Amino acid sequence: MEEKENQVSENGFRKEIGLFGGISVIGGIVIGSGIFYLGSYVLQYVGMSEGLALLCWIIGGFLSLLGGLCYAELGAAFPKAGGNIYYLSEAFHPLIGSLDGYSLFLISDPASSAAISIALITALFGNTMSDMQIKIASIILIVALSIYNCFGVKLSNILQNISMAAKLIPLIIIIVLGLFMGNVQPDLSLAVKEATGGNTIGMIALGIMASLWAYEGWTNINLVSEEMKNPQKNLPRAIIISLTGITLLYTLFNFVIYRILPLDVITKELADGNLYLGTLATKNLLGNLGSILVTLCMVFAMFGSLNGCLWTPPRTYYALAQEKHWPKAFGKLNPKTGVPVFGFVIETIMAIIFVCFNTLQDLTILVAFTSLIFNSLTVLAVPVFRKKFPDVHRPYRVWTPIVYIYLAAEIILIAYTIATDMRNSFISLGALVIGVIIYYFFEWKLKKEKTKDVS
């Protein structure tokens, strides 16, 4: 009986994820398409300054790690399926938790899956397929992976572990060879090379925003914390190990690109619309072998990232349904696999809609902006939880100043994003307005049901 309790949570989730599995969840989702094309956006946002671009990657990773440390305290003390939904509902109000879930459902989750699938297919077949063909292939890939993940968390985690190992090997080879064989001396000063029409602080803020999308996904480990073995120890370790390693990896990968490609070549490639600088750099370094190596790395990286982005979100919708602010069907687990299958079905449909109607760059900003808002609120839940639940055992406790440093940085980024990209910012804020309407609709339904039961 005790062994069974260790394998299945009180809500029926299967505990199949160990420490390496937790690292694979974070690394598998985070190290995806972003590492291959977002460096181009970061460079453009900071006026083609390679020094500023690397600074943005370091700051983006540092901010993610600070946020991750806060999430580690919450996840270790309260290992609940749905992560943010539970934290925000308990710390502030069920409306706030529900709004996070609605924004994930309406924007972040489908936009992430759509962006990664489009980037993967474009990287593989961009020169031979039309935009329509790319979108059709992206949809087929999303549907196939969603079906696979419906067969249980064990299979999902196995695929995540394999893709994690498979993409790290060629990525590390590229970085090592580039560091020693690259013969360009990049200008790492913070001087702007091309005017972008904004001030330096605003440029850096946009560059950090773009880099943050590449780090996006580390919060997903808290969504599956109820499916982790010994989350009190493994969840904080997984977050710290993953985000530290990923920051180093991203910074070195972009530095290697600058070591191989002169800035004038990079500028010309970006002007021609070629965002995949890593592919070009590796081909210049190793010829056809480099093309094969980077293609393999890209396929495994994006595939694992897409798998993680499809696998974890239905747990959010499950938590929403358990809070009774989402249709009941989302809160039902398949008795054989312990998976919220209905959530996968609807999530897939939403991702298909985003594939059809959005560009890759729009998807990037949409995901980053909504994540900033709710990640900040979740981090603010740390001191609130300490006051509301002072007696709860906290296996990991984050240093309090980290909470407020993270919050200050996030508020600055949110303000600059609204000021510089009002279109996508207001789309994200519009989703929150829709979320308020949805929440009070379910509140109305609950009151109606209670009134009916009383009468």
UniProtKB/TrEMBL annotation:
InterPro entries according to UniProt: AA/rel_permease1, AminoAcid_Transporter
Pfam families linked: AA_permease_2 (PF13520)
Could you name the domain of life of the organism this protein comes from?
Bacteria
Q: Which UniProt keywords apply?
A: Membrane, Transmembrane, Transmembrane helix
Which residues span the membrane?
17-39, 51-72, 104-126, 132-152, 164-181, 201-218, 239-261, 285-306, 338-360, 366-386, 398-419, 425-442
Q: How does it sit in the membrane?
A: Multi-pass membrane protein
This protein's GO CC annotations: membrane
User: What stretch or stretches form a coiled coil here?
Assistant: none
Say if the entry is tagged with keyword Metal-binding.
no
Task: State the compartments where it is located.
Answer: Membrane
Task: Please give the Gene Ontology molecular function terms for this protein.
Answer: L-amino acid transmembrane transporter activity
Protein name from the UniProt record: APA family basic amino acid/polyamine antiporter
> Species name for this entry?
Catenisphaera adipataccumulans
Organism lineage reads as: Bacteria, Bacillati, Bacillota, Erysipelotrichia, Erysipelotrichales
